[in-house]
Design brief:
Layout: H1 3-24, H2 26-50, H3 58-74, H4 88-101, H5 106-129, H6 144-167, E1 171-173, E2 177-181, H7 182-202, H8 208-236, H9 251-254, H10 256-272
Length: 273
């Protein structure tokens, strides 16, 4: 099958599944986020292997399991903030384990072991939490901000691609992504912010000013997130992080922009709340 057709069909079903899970019920979205997180952590660890970095996969998965378990428990019980301090425990255990393991490069070992949790699990957690935030943190789930987030993200990606092909001449970040241009990057940001403005009419959770600010946050940090993942793949000398999505690569390939943008959006909404 033609690669373009494969990519189109795969992308269509991905979007349908994602929007359905976001829209219909937060437990479906949480199940999807959990699956994506652990697949993403696995892909991250595979990239580390290819770069010959030493790491312990346990310290990527264990804090992630604790984090998502706390979310699950919070559906039925009031989970005090103190219980989230359990996430600190694996970090200190890793430091102690590294001390006694006599690792030759302890700084590399510790940072590599935590990369999957910090780079994948926490951002996906932030994405999920967007469903419980409007102008303040609430206990009721709403799909609006998450849907608006992805509408802006996809508009940015599409806009950057189309304007880059039509007008792109000046390289944006040739060291990491030779095909990105300033024209495409700026075009993507403009189109993404335009969609963010329109989100104000579709989703009234936030003011038009906040939606425009979110548009800038999503497009700018989404672009940087794409570059960060490209940097990791270049270091590992691979084209894709995985093969879970035909024509699109792995979870990290599909959600590279989200991994930086979602925490920044969550932080902004937390601050204005």
């Amino acid at each position: 099958m033609n690669s373009f057709v494969t990519r189109t069909i795969s992308g269509f079903f991905f979007v349908v599944i994602l929007i359905s899970c976001i829209y219909f019920y937060h437990t479906l979205f949480f199940a999807l986020i959990t699956l994506l997180s652990f697949v993403g952590i696995y892909e991250c660890n595979q990239l580390l292997k290819k770069t010959k970095n030493q790491f312990n996969w346990v310290f990527s998965f264990v804090p992630s399991i604790i984090l998502f378990l706390l979310i699950t428990l919070s559906w039925k019980y009031t989970i005090d903030l103190k219980y989230y301090s359990l996430l600190i425990l694996p970090v200190f255990l890793l430091l102690i384990y590294t001390l006694f393991s006599k690792n030759e490069n302890p700084l590399n070992y510790v940072s590599s072991s935590l990369l999957g949790f910090l780079y994948v699990a926490l951002p996906f957690w932030c994405l999920y939490q967007l469903g419980f935030m409007t102008n303040s943190v609430t206990n009721e789930y709403s799909p609006n901000i998450i849907l608006g987030f992805f509408f802006v993200m996809w508009a940015n990606d599409t806009g950057a691609y189309l304007t880059g092909r039509a007008f792109g001449k000046h390289k944006f970040f040739p060291r990491i992504s030779p095909n990105k241009t300033w024209e495409g990057t700026i075009g993507g940001i403009i189109i993404g912010v335009l969609i963010a403005y329109l989100n104000h009419f579709w989703f009234e959770n936030l003011s038009v000013t906040n939606w425009i600010i979110l548009g800038l946050i999503i497009t700018i940090f989404g672009t940087l997130g794409d570059l960060v993942e490209s940097m990791f793949k270049r270091a590992a000398k691979v084209k894709d992080s995985g093969k879970i999505m035909p024509g699109h690569g792995g979870v990290l390939d599909r959600f590279d922009s989200t991994l930086l943008a979602a925490p920044m959006v969550w932080l902004y909404l937390l601050l204005i709340g």
